[in-house]
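Appendix B, record 7
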Amino acid sequence: MKVFKVVIDTNVIVSALKSNRGFAYRLLSIIDDRRFKISISVPLIFEYEDALKREKTNIKLSKADIDAILDYICFTGEKREIYYLWRPILKDPKDDMVLELAVESECDFIISYNQKDFFGAEKFNIEVITPKEFLKIIGEIK
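Structure tokens (predicted):
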């Protein structure tokens, strides 16, 4: 069985913690699954933390709970270091950071709700898909 390598965009993590009803939450709830491995980097974890702890996100979790979730992502994720920068390729530098991580870790997919923001990722043979599409690929949903 193929183990997919993925990078999860910040908007998916935020969405997962806003509601326990969506595909993002379902993906986050199986983040330690053997069918895929997430790649993480220090800058991406800091981006997750910044986005999750902003007041305007309306996440109804304590900062301690958010820290525990981030710690678990760090525990389960494959830590990668980026030794090069190709910026700018995409419109947003934060998206470039995600793309650089995906390229360095030879990911199969970037999982994001903002697929259009990653126009250009296909040059690196990386497909940008939604959480729902990924869950279908791994057989989690039909």
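Remarks on this record: The chain has a mean pLDDT of 91. Residues 69 and 97 are 21 Å apart (CA to CA).
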